[in-house]
Write a structure and sequence with these properties.
Structural class: mainly alpha
Helix content: 55-70%
Number of strands: 0
Strand content: under 5%
Number of helices: 4
Largest sheet: none
Order of helices and strands: HHHH
Distance between the termini: 153 Å
Length: 120
């Protein structure tokens, strides 16, 4: 005849199963939190300095405005001198059509001054 399992053993097996399953569930739900991502580096206390060429560009622009005023006043030598100074600070700016035109105008003015006046 088949023997019936004892109820106490069944209860112990069920209790062990529940205990193990509960432990696994608890561990899964209560894992250690993953480390937080590092915070971004704080901004520097002083603003970054602009590149060193910026003052040169500002100076060149000022010189070109002064050259334009000198050419408008027909001070051709002063105009060319300012344009040359600006070109040494910012060579690329001398290649613009406006500066090429201004330089040509100053050179024409100087050349015109050098020409002897025709006799009257």
């Amino acid at each position: 005849a088949a023997r019936r399992p004892r109820p106490a053993i069944l209860w112990l097996a069920a209790a062990a199963t529940v205990t193990v399953a509960g432990g696994v569930l608890y561990a899964a739900l209560h894992q250690a939190p993953s480390p937080a991502p590092p915070s971004p580096t704080p901004p520097p206390s002083t603003p970054p300095r602009p590149p060193s060429f910026v003052p040169d560009l500002v100076a060149a622009a000022t010189l070109r405005r002064e050259a334009t005023a000198a050419c408008d006043a027909r001070s051709w030598s002063a105009c060319l001198s300012k344009l040359d100074e600006a070109r040494s600070a910012d060579p690329a700016g001398d290649e613009t059509p406006a500066m090429k035109s201004l330089r040509a105008r100053a050179l024409e003015g100087i050349e015109e001054k050098r020409r002897p006046e025709p006799p009257r």
